[in-house]
Amino acid sequence: GESVGLHLPTLSVQEGDNSIINCAYSNSASDYFIWYKQESGKGPQFIIDIRSNMDKRQGQRVTVLLNKTVKHLSLQIAATQPGDSAVYFCAENNGGYQKVTFGIGTKLQVIP
Amino acid sequence: ETGVTQTPRHLVMGMTNKKSLKCEQHLGHNAMYWYKQSAKKPLELMFVYNFKEQTENNSVPSRFSPECPNSSHLFLHLHTLQPEDSALYLCASSQKGEDYGYTFGSGTRLTVV
Question: What does the alpha-carbon distance between residue A51 and residue A100 come to, in Å, rounded to a whole number?
Fold first, then answer.
């Protein structure tokens, strides 16, 4: 398997429960945020994004919450499924396509 | 497939070897990137190409040499690498002017021995 995911913060969740993955970002000037999912052996995959003029955005089974006051981003996954097992990491953009900073990631383990 | 294809998927090379990583995107994007992903570290941006022109080189050692012959293809030429260069090398593309979500390839797992 891939070495990405070892030694990362890990969240273990029972199948069917909701998952919350947190991310603290660094730059108060960041205006666009993205959550990525990386499964073993694959590259990161876009899940959902949010702009700084929003507090919440919902997708299919996923919700992203943005708290600019404390520079905190969270990803909520409803009714977690085994296929959700992966490493999740956030990215912040503070202007321009070259100004994206990625977090270290959280490994989500779904217990059947 | 995400629309960004990387080859090879795995590569083992000696420190004196020369090899190249290839990336191809079929999305019509005009920006392409090389990232390095190591255990316990965030993704590290190495190079950015915008409309085939290199616009970013994040203090990457000269033993890594990028090439972008057209807006669909990106190469990373490797020579005299060190064991600490072992990592997952990811290619990504995006469309400048739109939201900056990247489309990543599956990466090349590089091991330097």
Answer: 14
- On chain A, the residues whose CB falls within 8 A of the CB of B43 are 44, 89, 102
A6-23: b or e for each residue (b if 16 or more CB lie within 10 Å)?
eebeebebeeeeebebeb
Query: Any CB–CB contact under 8 A between A48 and chain B?
Result: no
Please say whether the dihedral angle defined by the alpha carbons of residues A19, A25, B42 and B101, taken in this order, is positive or negative. Answer: positive
Question: What confidence score (pLDDT) does residue A98 get?
Answer: 64
Q: Are A106 and A10 in contact (CB under 8 A)?
A: yes
Shortest Cα distance from A44 to chain B (angstroms)? 6
Judged by CB atoms closer than 8 Å, whether chains meet at B40 and A49 is answered as: no
B1 has pLDDT over 70: no
Task: Please tell me the distance from the alpha carbon of residue A101 to that of residue B42, in angstroms, as a whole number.
Answer: 8
CA distance B49 to B72: 11
